[in-house]
Input
Amino acid sequence: MTKKNLLKKGAALASLALGLASFSAASATAQELRFMCSSDGNECATFRELFDKFEAANDGVSIVIEDVPYKSILENLPIQLAAGTGPDLAKVTDLGGLNQYYLDITPHVDAATWETNFGSTQPWFRGGDDDNGIYGMLTQLTVTGPFINKTLFDQAGVAVPGADADWDTWAAAANEVAKATGVTFPMAMDRSGHRIAGPAISYGAKLFADDGSPILVDDAFTAYVEKFVGWHKDGTMAPEVWGASGGTSYQDAKAEFINGDLVYYFSGSWQIQKMAESIGDDFDWQVVGSPCGAGGCSGMPGGAGVVGFEQTEHPELVGKLMDFLAQGDNYNYLTAKTLNIPAHAGVAANPVDYIDASEDAAAALNAFAAQVAGLSPIALKYQGFKHNRAMFNITLQRVSQAIVGELSVEDAMARAKTDLAEALAASQ
Amino acid sequence: MLALLSAVMRIFEIPMAFLQRVLGIKRLAWVFLAPNLILFSLFAFLPVILNIVYAVTGGDQILLKDRSFVGLDNFDTLSKCTNYLDPNSCQKDIFWRSVHNTGWFIVLQVGFMVGFSLLTALVLNRDIRARGFFRSVFFFPVLLSPVVVALVWKWILQRQGLLNAGLDSMGFEPVLWLLERKWTFAWSIFLSVWAHMGFYTLILLAGLQAIPRDVYEAALMDAAKPFRTFRKITLPLLMPTMLVVMILALIKGVQTFDEVYAFSGGGPGSATTLVIQYVYETGFAGAPRLFGLASAASIMLALVLVVLTGLQLWATRKNADG
Output
């Protein structure tokens, strides 16, 4: 080997060693957080903008967003968390159900400020009445409720029922509009136990016994299910949603509404952005109040929250990031950009200046926001109940079976009671 | 280069020579089998053992240390029925509906699959024009993802889909195919046969081509009619291949989940819910996640499959022995 070659090889080795050393040094100081996210609209992209701001203000911090389908959040995330391979944070909807994995960020944030801004929804994240931890914040407060195709009502010459109209009034109006305009579907409701809960509560369903234990089925719940099944049989409700699917599969009627083939669509506020983008000027649409009954005129609250997980290697950083997101300006931007209802009391105190929102979208958001105050305490309790997902799934399965005639309503409700008892026993 | 190769071989020779001295030439074969056995154990054998362990434990926790031993309770829960032919009389009525659905599914799906595959193979074995093109056309659905297959047929069959548009144009009333339980079940069998038929057609085609030509020539010289030739020559000589196809189709049929789930979600109601969907929803999509019950259901299914496969293998051996 010549002297020249030896020098060349020596220089290459030295560079390699230097590179490896600097890489190790950088790795030692760099902190990476993994955030699992799913979007109804542009939520994950908006988080990315905010995280870029956080990274710029915090040297050496890198936040990786795992943009996944909603089903992954529901089904894969719990498995990952149980196996200890979960992300550092995630945007979740099963707020109480994942409590056992949450990181309590109380040591890392100003607890008093958090309680002021998110106090009403904190119980949804907690494990019980004696749990006072701060685990996350609702970044997307949602409310279920109806959308109507206003243009179809105008074309049919049918007056939009008033704020205190009940389900029968709305069903009659929707049928009249559909008949007059030749539209295929008068009414539809997303195939979801969460969606049917609001109407059932408005009908008088209690869902919980006086001692706070879940019962799901009572006379009022059964009465609403009878009504619901009847609407599917007489063509009032689009059968493709609840009647064509099985098991726990989710189905919505968004496409039918956006295509102008549905008069009355019971869904929720998270659909607003999609509707605004897809409908545009094709027709006028608006949000109306939830139909009324013996239990009020309530929808179901819901939404997604950002939580940190106990298994993170950077708990302080996770707390810092969540505190950053909870700051008024940042939360306001998140709400305005994603066209959602704010759960932050400070932000909700003033009207949100929604970004790029059409007139219909802005009006819809304000209409849903106005309904928050009217939510039934039963609805609020149901949303925060740890085993609500089991109750939603049971409702889905058994009501669908009643609709297609596999079971009578009576048998379906009897089965639902047994299912609930078994689910609660298995969870002990 | 040769020197380098020689050096590398010498590196392996040292440990192998040592092993040969220690184990002897006969037991050395296990050393070569070991990597495959380890992988097989990790990814096939170990999951089966874990599945059995989950089936005898209870609770909704995934880590075994957090689960309690319950013996055969999960199997007992699944088996509680007054009348096994009536799912409504069972504690786990959805499980038994899925068992009934799966039973009918595999009987009809395997029957139609083998039948249509044989018919197609017989046609493709003839000297027809563009035979190569048609062979590709029949095989093409096999290449498609099950979700694509399901969605394509869902769009064709939905209320405002292609099929109803065609019926409407011919003056017929549209049919709500995906809202009628029996029709949805029938269509789920159809799309499963359509998606997989090409694969079995190829196997049967290979079997047909292995039959010696002179046997048919001899039959022709004896003025044997085509149907008699098929019954007395083609079918018996093709039987071993057909049995293989039936076993494969049966196993595949029992494992069906993705395309039916994407097609109908197991609905309407539970009309197209198959056992694998029950296992998936009980263990993963449901709340609480009952891993034990799901594992027990999968073991019960596996036992049925083992029995059916054993019966078919016995039939194959009996047929081969004449």
Residues 143-301+371-427 of chain A form a domain with the D-Maltodextrin-Binding Protein; domain 2 fold (CATH 3.40.190.10). Chain A touches chain B through 37 residues (CB under 8 Å). The first strand of chain A starts at residue 31 and ends at 37.
